[in-house]
Amino acid sequence: MQTKACARYSFSSLTSPARSAMPIVEGNIRSSRELYFRSSNLPQRKDIAMSTNAPEEGALRIGLLDFEPIRIAGLEDVLGELPHLQAVPTTLEVAMEDESLPLILVGLRDPLDSFETLARLKARRPAVKLILMGAEANEETIISAIAAGAKGYLEETVTPAQVTHCIEVVQSGSIWAPRKVLSKFVDRMLHTTEKRVLRHHFTFTEREQEVLRLLVAARSNREIAQSLGIEERTVKAYVGRLMRKVGVQNRIALSIHAASRVFGLEE
What GO terms are given for molecular function (predicted)? Predict the structure, then answer.
């Protein structure tokens, strides 16, 4: 974290009052780290103090996007234990342009916003590897995350070892997700591509775009209807019309198309 860096590099130049405040800063950082582990049900690691491992030259820079400060503190400590990894808190604007971040961990807050973030990052930087981390672990959320461009999905209750293992798997080119979910995703894709004739030259009405955004966020027809204040049967009609317009056979294919080709191109 920047606070930690400032505390470390500018300590010798501080005045006495400022120096006396340093233990408070350090203590707050430790408290944030410990609260991260408690809130994530991670085992306490009493042997770990403030990480002093400097990343080695050529370390893999991992962006941390859309995380709360407590999560950032915890992830920095977890990744800081390995000198070949370097955690770099970032913003969407920076992540979309920073080629020095080949892998980005994205915090899942609101699925609608997070899936659109994944799609925009993949559209701007096709080679970037994305891992989504959140509290939700239902199959549709994970499938939608993969459809939007994620190569991995981590629950917030994972252990530090699982975090680093996931990063290694994704960086090697594989996907990190429950086997059952991957099987279902592949099965849907196989059925989708049997007779798929995608159409790219079309426009969406404002209402169709609203339906698509919620569809990409893995919302059900009932949830979409409630969000937009329309009847559920109207939502079904919109989904059917969108599938015919795009040239796909099911909802997941429509979500994939919307995430990778529609929202990803928007600025």
Answer: DNA binding
